[in-house]
TrEMBL record:
Role, per record: Specifically catalyzes the decarboxylation of meso-diaminopimelate (meso-DAP) to L-lysine.
Active site annotation, chain numbering: 361
InterPro entries: Ala_racemase/Decarboxylase_C, DAP_deCOOHase_LysA, De-COase2_C, De-COase2_N, De-COase2_pyr-phos_BS, Orn/DAP/Arg_de-COase, PLP-binding_barrel
Biological pathway: Amino-acid biosynthesis; L-lysine biosynthesis via DAP pathway; L-lysine from DL-2,6-diaminopimelate: step 1/1
Modified residues (N6-(pyridoxal phosphate)lysine): 66
Residue stretches making up the Orn/DAP/Arg decarboxylase 2 C-terminal domain: 34-388
Annotated Pfam families: Orn_Arg_deC_N, Orn_DAP_Arg_deC
Single biological process term from Gene Ontology: lysine biosynthetic process via diaminopimelate
Example of a GO MF term: diaminopimelate decarboxylase activity
Domain Orn/DAP/Arg decarboxylase 2 N-terminal per the UniProt entry, residue ranges: 41-296
Enzyme class: lyase
The protein, known as: Diaminopimelate decarboxylase
Amino acid sequence: MYLHGTSTINSRNHLEIGGADTVDIAREFGTPVYVYDTALIRERALGFKRAFEEAGISYQVAYASKAFSCIAMVQLADELGLSLDVVSSGEMITAKRADFPMERVHFHGNNKSSDEIDYALELGIGCFVVDNFYELSLLQEKASSRKQKVNILIRTTPGVEAHTHEYISTGQEDSKFGFDLSSGQADQAIEMLQADEYLHLRGVHSHIGSQIFDTDGFVLTVEKLFQEFQRWHELYDFIPEVFNAGGGFGIRYVEGDEPLAPEQYVRDLISAIKREAENTGIDVPEIWIEPGRSISGDAGTTLYTVGSKKDIPGVRRYLAVDGGMTDNIRPALYQAEYEGILANRAQEETSETFSIAGKCCESGDMLIWNLPLPEVESEDVLAVFCTGAYGYSMANNYNRIARPPVVFVEDGEVDLVVQGETLEDLLKNDLPLPSRAKA
Protein backbone atom coordinates (compact mmCIF):
# COMPACT_ATOMS: atom_id res chain seq x y z
CA MET A 1 0.00 0.00 0.00
CA TYR A 2 1.46 3.33 -1.09
CA LEU A 3 0.09 6.37 0.77
CA HIS A 4 0.59 9.88 -0.60
CA GLY A 5 1.22 13.09 1.30
CA THR A 6 -0.36 13.24 4.76
CA SER A 7 -2.42 10.08 4.19
CA THR A 8 -2.26 7.54 6.99
CA ILE A 9 -4.32 4.78 8.59
CA ASN A 10 -5.93 5.79 11.92
CA SER A 11 -6.88 3.75 14.98
CA ARG A 12 -10.30 2.96 13.47
CA ASN A 13 -8.54 1.26 10.54
CA HIS A 14 -9.82 4.08 8.31
CA LEU A 15 -7.90 6.03 5.69
CA GLU A 16 -7.14 9.50 7.00
CA ILE A 17 -6.07 12.46 4.87
CA GLY A 18 -4.96 15.79 6.29
CA GLY A 19 -5.97 14.63 9.74
CA ALA A 20 -9.55 13.94 8.61
CA ASP A 21 -11.22 10.53 8.53
CA THR A 22 -12.28 9.80 4.95
CA VAL A 23 -15.18 7.61 6.07
CA ASP A 24 -16.58 10.58 8.00
CA ILE A 25 -16.06 12.76 4.91
CA ALA A 26 -18.00 10.26 2.79
CA ARG A 27 -20.86 10.25 5.30
CA GLU A 28 -21.02 14.04 5.53
CA PHE A 29 -20.74 14.95 1.86
CA GLY A 30 -21.89 11.78 0.14
CA THR A 31 -20.02 9.99 -2.60
CA PRO A 32 -18.41 10.37 -5.00
CA VAL A 33 -16.40 13.19 -3.42
CA TYR A 34 -12.98 14.57 -4.33
CA VAL A 35 -10.71 15.04 -1.30
CA TYR A 36 -7.63 17.28 -1.65
CA ASP A 37 -4.62 17.13 0.67
CA THR A 38 -3.71 20.82 0.66
CA ALA A 39 -0.49 20.24 2.64
CA LEU A 40 0.76 18.07 -0.25
CA ILE A 41 -0.18 20.78 -2.77
CA ARG A 42 1.91 23.24 -0.74
CA GLU A 43 4.82 20.80 -0.56
CA ARG A 44 4.86 20.21 -4.33
CA ALA A 45 4.58 23.92 -5.23
CA LEU A 46 7.22 25.03 -2.76
CA GLY A 47 9.56 22.28 -3.97
CA PHE A 48 9.58 23.78 -7.47
CA LYS A 49 10.08 27.29 -6.11
CA ARG A 50 12.82 26.31 -3.69
CA ALA A 51 15.01 24.85 -6.46
CA PHE A 52 14.92 28.13 -8.40
CA GLU A 53 15.61 30.21 -5.32
CA GLU A 54 18.55 28.06 -4.27
CA ALA A 55 20.04 28.56 -7.74
CA GLY A 56 19.50 32.32 -7.61
CA ILE A 57 17.55 32.25 -10.89
CA SER A 58 14.78 34.66 -11.88
CA TYR A 59 11.68 32.51 -12.43
CA GLN A 60 7.93 32.01 -12.43
CA VAL A 61 6.18 28.79 -11.45
CA ALA A 62 2.77 28.98 -13.11
CA TYR A 63 0.16 26.51 -11.90
CA ALA A 64 -1.52 24.98 -14.96
CA SER A 65 -5.11 25.46 -13.90
CA LYS A 66 -6.47 23.08 -16.54
CA ALA A 67 -5.39 20.28 -14.18
CA PHE A 68 -7.86 21.43 -11.53
CA SER A 69 -9.47 24.84 -11.30
CA CYS A 70 -11.86 26.34 -8.79
CA ILE A 71 -11.84 29.60 -6.85
CA ALA A 72 -10.28 28.00 -3.75
CA MET A 73 -7.50 26.35 -5.76
CA VAL A 74 -6.65 29.62 -7.49
CA GLN A 75 -6.61 31.39 -4.11
CA LEU A 76 -4.23 28.73 -2.79
CA ALA A 77 -1.98 29.21 -5.82
CA ASP A 78 -1.90 32.94 -5.09
CA GLU A 79 -1.11 32.29 -1.43
CA LEU A 80 1.83 30.13 -2.54
CA GLY A 81 3.18 32.87 -4.81
CA LEU A 82 2.51 30.97 -8.03
CA SER A 83 1.60 32.41 -11.39
CA LEU A 84 -1.37 30.97 -13.28
CA ASP A 85 -1.70 29.32 -16.68
CA VAL A 86 -5.23 29.69 -18.13
CA VAL A 87 -6.71 28.47 -21.40
CA SER A 88 -10.28 29.81 -21.53
CA SER A 89 -12.65 32.56 -20.45
CA GLY A 90 -13.92 30.20 -17.76
CA GLU A 91 -10.48 29.84 -16.23
CA MET A 92 -9.93 33.60 -16.54
CA ILE A 93 -13.16 34.50 -14.74
CA THR A 94 -12.26 31.98 -12.03
CA ALA A 95 -8.97 33.83 -11.54
CA LYS A 96 -10.82 37.15 -11.48
CA ARG A 97 -13.33 35.95 -8.85
CA ALA A 98 -10.40 34.67 -6.78
CA ASP A 99 -8.79 38.15 -6.96
CA PHE A 100 -5.70 36.60 -8.52
CA PRO A 101 -3.18 39.23 -9.74
CA MET A 102 -3.74 39.44 -13.50
CA GLU A 103 -0.12 40.37 -14.18
CA ARG A 104 0.80 36.81 -13.10
CA VAL A 105 -1.67 35.15 -15.49
CA HIS A 106 -0.49 33.54 -18.74
CA PHE A 107 -3.10 32.89 -21.44
CA HIS A 108 -2.63 29.70 -23.49
CA GLY A 109 -4.67 27.90 -26.12
CA ASN A 110 -4.48 26.84 -29.76
CA ASN A 111 -7.77 28.48 -30.78
CA LYS A 112 -8.36 31.57 -28.67
CA SER A 113 -11.57 33.18 -29.83
CA SER A 114 -11.94 36.87 -30.61
CA ASP A 115 -14.14 37.28 -27.52
CA GLU A 116 -11.62 35.47 -25.30
CA ILE A 117 -8.81 37.72 -26.53
CA ASP A 118 -10.95 40.81 -25.87
CA TYR A 119 -11.67 39.55 -22.35
CA ALA A 120 -8.01 38.86 -21.66
CA LEU A 121 -7.02 42.32 -22.89
CA GLU A 122 -9.75 43.87 -20.75
CA LEU A 123 -8.48 42.01 -17.68
CA GLY A 124 -4.88 43.00 -18.38
CA ILE A 125 -3.54 39.45 -18.57
CA GLY A 126 0.21 39.43 -17.95
CA CYS A 127 1.25 37.40 -20.97
CA PHE A 128 -0.23 35.77 -24.07
CA VAL A 129 1.37 32.52 -25.18
CA VAL A 130 0.71 32.91 -28.90
CA ASP A 131 0.09 29.63 -30.69
CA ASN A 132 -0.45 30.42 -34.38
CA PHE A 133 -0.67 33.10 -37.07
CA TYR A 134 -4.45 33.44 -36.79
CA GLU A 135 -4.13 34.42 -33.14
CA LEU A 136 -1.14 36.63 -33.87
CA SER A 137 -3.09 38.59 -36.49
CA LEU A 138 -6.07 39.01 -34.14
CA LEU A 139 -3.81 40.27 -31.37
CA GLN A 140 -2.02 42.68 -33.66
CA GLU A 141 -5.32 44.16 -34.78
CA LYS A 142 -6.83 44.38 -31.29
CA ALA A 143 -3.74 45.71 -29.52
CA SER A 144 -3.31 48.37 -32.19
CA SER A 145 -6.94 49.51 -32.06
CA ARG A 146 -6.79 49.69 -28.25
CA LYS A 147 -3.26 51.16 -28.28
CA GLN A 148 -2.47 48.57 -25.61
CA LYS A 149 0.96 47.09 -25.00
CA VAL A 150 0.80 43.28 -24.74
CA ASN A 151 3.50 40.87 -23.59
CA ILE A 152 3.96 37.82 -25.81
CA LEU A 153 5.65 34.44 -25.75
CA ILE A 154 5.51 32.35 -28.91
CA ARG A 155 4.82 28.66 -28.46
CA THR A 156 7.22 26.53 -30.49
CA THR A 157 7.16 22.84 -31.41
CA PRO A 158 10.82 21.86 -31.21
CA GLY A 159 10.45 18.37 -32.66
CA VAL A 160 11.13 16.64 -29.34
CA GLU A 161 8.81 13.75 -28.49
CA ALA A 162 8.43 13.00 -24.79
CA HIS A 163 8.54 9.35 -23.70
CA THR A 164 4.83 9.25 -22.94
CA HIS A 165 1.44 8.27 -24.33
CA GLU A 166 0.93 9.52 -27.87
CA TYR A 167 -2.32 11.29 -26.91
CA ILE A 168 -0.48 13.56 -24.48
CA SER A 169 2.72 14.24 -26.42
CA THR A 170 2.74 17.80 -27.73
CA GLY A 171 6.32 18.76 -28.62
CA GLN A 172 6.63 16.85 -31.88
CA GLU A 173 6.48 18.62 -35.24
CA ASP A 174 3.10 17.14 -36.23
CA SER A 175 1.09 18.83 -33.48
CA LYS A 176 -1.91 21.12 -33.29
CA PHE A 177 0.11 23.35 -30.95
CA GLY A 178 2.64 26.04 -31.69
CA PHE A 179 4.92 27.40 -34.40
CA ASP A 180 7.08 24.72 -35.98
CA LEU A 181 10.82 25.35 -35.94
CA SER A 182 11.93 23.24 -38.90
CA SER A 183 9.51 24.80 -41.42
CA GLY A 184 10.44 28.38 -40.56
CA GLN A 185 7.08 29.26 -38.97
CA ALA A 186 8.75 30.42 -35.76
CA ASP A 187 11.12 32.64 -37.75
CA GLN A 188 8.21 34.28 -39.52
CA ALA A 189 6.37 34.91 -36.25
CA ILE A 190 9.44 36.48 -34.64
CA GLU A 191 10.00 38.75 -37.63
CA MET A 192 6.36 39.91 -37.46
CA LEU A 193 6.53 40.55 -33.72
CA GLN A 194 9.83 42.41 -33.82
CA ALA A 195 8.23 44.89 -36.21
CA ASP A 196 5.03 45.34 -34.17
CA GLU A 197 4.49 48.53 -32.17
CA TYR A 198 2.25 47.10 -29.45
CA LEU A 199 3.17 43.41 -29.11
CA HIS A 200 6.30 42.90 -27.04
CA LEU A 201 7.98 39.55 -27.66
CA ARG A 202 9.38 38.53 -24.28
CA GLY A 203 10.44 35.02 -25.15
CA VAL A 204 9.69 31.49 -26.21
CA HIS A 205 7.52 28.67 -24.87
CA SER A 206 7.80 24.94 -25.41
CA HIS A 207 5.84 22.02 -23.94
CA ILE A 208 6.96 18.53 -24.93
CA GLY A 209 4.31 16.35 -23.25
CA SER A 210 2.91 15.10 -19.98
CA GLN A 211 3.68 12.53 -17.29
CA ILE A 212 7.43 12.66 -18.02
CA PHE A 213 9.76 10.75 -15.68
CA ASP A 214 13.17 12.00 -16.80
CA THR A 215 14.75 15.24 -17.96
CA ASP A 216 16.33 14.08 -21.23
CA GLY A 217 13.59 15.63 -23.37
CA PHE A 218 13.79 18.95 -21.54
CA VAL A 219 17.57 19.05 -21.95
CA LEU A 220 17.34 18.29 -25.68
CA THR A 221 14.71 21.02 -26.08
CA VAL A 222 16.98 23.54 -24.35
CA GLU A 223 19.85 22.61 -26.66
CA LYS A 224 17.71 22.97 -29.79
CA LEU A 225 16.16 26.26 -28.75
CA PHE A 226 19.42 27.91 -27.75
CA GLN A 227 20.74 27.17 -31.23
CA GLU A 228 17.69 29.03 -32.53
CA PHE A 229 18.21 31.86 -30.02
CA GLN A 230 21.70 32.41 -31.39
CA ARG A 231 20.42 32.45 -34.97
CA TRP A 232 17.45 34.72 -34.12
CA HIS A 233 19.81 37.17 -32.44
CA GLU A 234 21.83 37.43 -35.65
CA LEU A 235 18.81 37.60 -37.98
CA TYR A 236 16.24 39.60 -35.99
CA ASP A 237 18.17 41.14 -33.10
CA PHE A 238 16.04 39.06 -30.74
CA ILE A 239 17.32 37.82 -27.39
CA PRO A 240 14.72 36.08 -25.18
CA GLU A 241 13.98 37.59 -21.80
CA VAL A 242 11.95 34.47 -20.90
CA PHE A 243 12.34 30.77 -21.60
CA ASN A 244 9.18 28.85 -20.70
CA ALA A 245 9.89 25.11 -20.53
CA GLY A 246 6.22 24.20 -20.02
CA GLY A 247 5.22 21.40 -17.68
CA GLY A 248 4.63 17.68 -17.98
CA PHE A 249 6.48 16.58 -14.85
CA GLY A 250 5.20 13.15 -13.87
CA ILE A 251 3.68 11.78 -10.67
CA ARG A 252 3.34 8.29 -9.22
CA TYR A 253 -0.02 6.76 -10.09
CA VAL A 254 0.85 3.07 -9.75
CA GLU A 255 3.75 0.82 -8.82
CA GLY A 256 6.44 1.17 -11.45
CA ASP A 257 5.94 4.91 -11.95
CA GLU A 258 9.19 6.56 -10.89
CA PRO A 259 8.95 10.35 -11.23
CA LEU A 260 11.72 12.66 -10.14
CA ALA A 261 11.31 15.04 -7.23
CA PRO A 262 10.09 18.50 -8.33
CA GLU A 263 13.46 19.95 -7.37
CA GLN A 264 15.34 17.56 -9.67
CA TYR A 265 13.38 18.55 -12.78
CA VAL A 266 14.19 22.19 -12.04
CA ARG A 267 17.87 21.61 -11.24
CA ASP A 268 18.48 19.69 -14.47
CA LEU A 269 16.62 22.34 -16.47
CA ILE A 270 18.64 25.17 -14.91
CA SER A 271 21.89 23.29 -15.49
CA ALA A 272 21.09 22.78 -19.18
CA ILE A 273 20.08 26.42 -19.68
CA LYS A 274 23.20 27.74 -17.95
CA ARG A 275 25.40 25.46 -20.05
CA GLU A 276 23.77 26.47 -23.35
CA ALA A 277 23.80 30.15 -22.38
CA GLU A 278 27.54 29.93 -21.84
CA ASN A 279 28.06 28.00 -25.09
CA THR A 280 26.09 30.53 -27.15
CA GLY A 281 27.07 33.72 -25.34
CA ILE A 282 23.41 34.48 -24.61
CA ASP A 283 22.38 35.69 -21.15
CA VAL A 284 20.45 33.26 -18.98
CA PRO A 285 16.77 34.22 -19.44
CA GLU A 286 14.10 34.22 -16.77
CA ILE A 287 12.86 30.63 -16.54
CA TRP A 288 9.16 29.79 -16.40
CA ILE A 289 7.58 26.39 -15.87
CA GLU A 290 3.93 25.27 -15.83
CA PRO A 291 3.35 22.34 -13.46
CA GLY A 292 -0.27 21.27 -13.09
CA ARG A 293 -0.59 17.54 -12.48
CA SER A 294 2.64 17.54 -10.45
CA ILE A 295 1.12 20.07 -8.02
CA SER A 296 -2.44 18.80 -7.65
CA GLY A 297 -2.43 15.25 -9.04
CA ASP A 298 -1.37 13.04 -6.16
CA ALA A 299 -2.98 15.44 -3.66
CA GLY A 300 -6.44 14.29 -4.79
CA THR A 301 -8.32 11.15 -3.71
CA THR A 302 -11.82 10.22 -4.85
CA LEU A 303 -14.12 8.39 -2.44
CA TYR A 304 -16.84 6.08 -3.79
CA THR A 305 -19.48 3.85 -2.26
CA VAL A 306 -19.52 0.23 -3.40
CA GLY A 307 -22.78 -1.02 -4.89
CA SER A 308 -23.29 -4.15 -6.94
CA LYS A 309 -20.93 -7.05 -7.56
CA LYS A 310 -20.78 -9.45 -10.48
CA ASP A 311 -18.78 -12.68 -10.37
CA ILE A 312 -17.95 -14.52 -13.59
CA PRO A 313 -16.46 -17.82 -12.37
CA GLY A 314 -12.94 -18.33 -13.64
CA VAL A 315 -12.99 -15.01 -15.50
CA ARG A 316 -13.41 -11.85 -13.41
CA ARG A 317 -15.02 -10.27 -10.36
CA TYR A 318 -16.60 -6.90 -11.07
CA LEU A 319 -17.24 -4.34 -8.37
CA ALA A 320 -19.43 -1.34 -9.23
CA VAL A 321 -19.16 2.06 -7.54
CA ASP A 322 -21.40 5.12 -7.58
CA GLY A 323 -19.18 7.13 -9.93
CA GLY A 324 -16.97 6.37 -12.90
CA MET A 325 -16.26 8.09 -16.19
CA THR A 326 -18.38 11.08 -15.21
CA ASP A 327 -15.93 12.01 -12.43
CA ASN A 328 -12.78 10.39 -13.92
CA ILE A 329 -12.75 9.93 -17.66
CA ARG A 330 -9.00 9.34 -17.93
CA PRO A 331 -9.15 5.52 -17.89
CA ALA A 332 -11.66 5.56 -20.74
CA LEU A 333 -9.72 8.22 -22.69
CA TYR A 334 -6.23 6.78 -22.52
CA GLN A 335 -6.20 3.73 -20.29
CA ALA A 336 -4.91 5.64 -17.26
CA GLU A 337 -4.11 3.42 -14.29
CA TYR A 338 -4.84 3.97 -10.60
CA GLU A 339 -4.45 2.33 -7.21
CA GLY A 340 -7.00 2.24 -4.40
CA ILE A 341 -7.98 0.75 -1.04
CA LEU A 342 -11.09 0.31 1.07
CA ALA A 343 -11.13 3.48 3.15
CA ASN A 344 -13.21 1.89 5.91
CA ARG A 345 -11.10 -1.29 6.17
CA ALA A 346 -7.76 0.10 5.12
CA GLN A 347 -5.34 -2.43 6.62
CA GLU A 348 -7.37 -5.58 6.15
CA GLU A 349 -5.43 -8.20 4.29
CA THR A 350 -6.24 -8.37 0.59
CA SER A 351 -7.71 -11.69 -0.46
CA GLU A 352 -9.39 -11.10 -3.81
CA THR A 353 -8.87 -9.21 -7.05
CA PHE A 354 -11.67 -7.00 -8.33
CA SER A 355 -12.14 -4.86 -11.42
CA ILE A 356 -13.75 -1.55 -10.51
CA ALA A 357 -16.62 -0.57 -12.79
CA GLY A 358 -18.36 2.76 -13.03
CA LYS A 359 -22.13 3.13 -13.20
CA CYS A 360 -22.40 4.64 -16.69
CA CYS A 361 -24.04 2.79 -19.55
CA GLU A 362 -20.72 2.18 -21.32
CA SER A 363 -18.70 -1.03 -21.26
CA GLY A 364 -15.59 1.16 -21.28
CA ASP A 365 -16.55 2.77 -17.96
CA MET A 366 -13.90 0.94 -15.94
CA LEU A 367 -11.85 2.77 -13.31
CA ILE A 368 -9.34 0.08 -12.30
CA TRP A 369 -8.64 -3.40 -13.62
CA ASN A 370 -7.49 -6.11 -11.19
CA LEU A 371 -7.33 -4.25 -7.88
CA PRO A 372 -6.36 -6.39 -4.84
CA LEU A 373 -8.84 -5.87 -1.98
CA PRO A 374 -10.32 -7.72 1.00
CA GLU A 375 -13.67 -9.40 0.40
CA VAL A 376 -15.81 -6.35 -0.36
CA GLU A 377 -19.33 -5.65 0.84
CA SER A 378 -21.91 -3.22 -0.49
CA GLU A 379 -21.64 0.19 1.22
CA ASP A 380 -17.88 -0.14 1.72
CA VAL A 381 -16.03 3.08 0.84
CA LEU A 382 -13.44 2.78 -1.93
CA ALA A 383 -10.66 5.39 -2.08
CA VAL A 384 -8.97 5.87 -5.46
CA PHE A 385 -5.68 7.74 -5.23
CA CYS A 386 -4.08 10.43 -7.41
CA THR A 387 -7.27 11.83 -8.95
CA GLY A 388 -6.39 15.47 -8.26
CA ALA A 389 -5.53 16.33 -11.86
CA TYR A 390 -7.99 16.00 -14.74
CA GLY A 391 -10.65 14.42 -12.55
CA TYR A 392 -12.93 17.27 -11.51
CA SER A 393 -11.71 19.43 -14.41
CA MET A 394 -12.86 16.80 -16.96
CA ALA A 395 -15.99 15.75 -15.08
CA ASN A 396 -19.18 15.57 -17.11
CA ASN A 397 -22.91 14.89 -16.91
CA TYR A 398 -23.12 11.80 -19.09
CA ASN A 399 -26.26 9.79 -18.23
CA ARG A 400 -27.40 12.99 -16.47
CA ILE A 401 -25.20 12.22 -13.48
CA ALA A 402 -24.39 15.17 -11.23
CA ARG A 403 -20.80 16.28 -10.70
CA PRO A 404 -19.42 15.52 -7.22
CA PRO A 405 -18.40 17.99 -4.51
CA VAL A 406 -14.79 18.91 -3.71
CA VAL A 407 -13.33 19.29 -0.23
CA PHE A 408 -9.94 20.53 0.97
CA VAL A 409 -8.48 18.93 4.09
CA GLU A 410 -5.63 20.17 6.28
CA ASP A 411 -4.79 19.88 9.97
CA GLY A 412 -8.04 18.05 10.66
CA GLU A 413 -10.18 20.75 9.06
CA VAL A 414 -12.50 19.86 6.18
CA ASP A 415 -13.61 22.70 3.89
CA LEU A 416 -16.21 22.32 1.16
CA VAL A 417 -14.79 24.30 -1.80
CA VAL A 418 -17.08 23.11 -4.61
CA GLN A 419 -20.67 22.13 -3.95
CA GLY A 420 -21.92 18.94 -5.54
CA GLU A 421 -24.49 19.41 -8.26
CA THR A 422 -28.13 18.71 -7.51
CA LEU A 423 -30.76 17.22 -9.78
CA GLU A 424 -32.15 20.73 -10.22
CA ASP A 425 -28.71 21.92 -11.36
CA LEU A 426 -28.87 19.35 -14.15
CA LEU A 427 -32.08 20.94 -15.43
CA LYS A 428 -31.31 24.64 -14.95
CA ASN A 429 -30.39 25.29 -18.60
CA ASP A 430 -33.14 23.15 -20.11
CA LEU A 431 -36.07 24.84 -21.83
CA PRO A 432 -39.42 23.13 -22.50
CA LEU A 433 -40.60 22.64 -26.03
CA PRO A 434 -42.67 25.72 -26.95
CA SER A 435 -46.39 25.00 -27.15
CA ARG A 436 -47.90 26.01 -30.46
CA ALA A 437 -51.57 26.13 -31.29
CA LYS A 438 -52.47 23.60 -33.96
CA ALA A 439 -54.50 24.74 -36.94
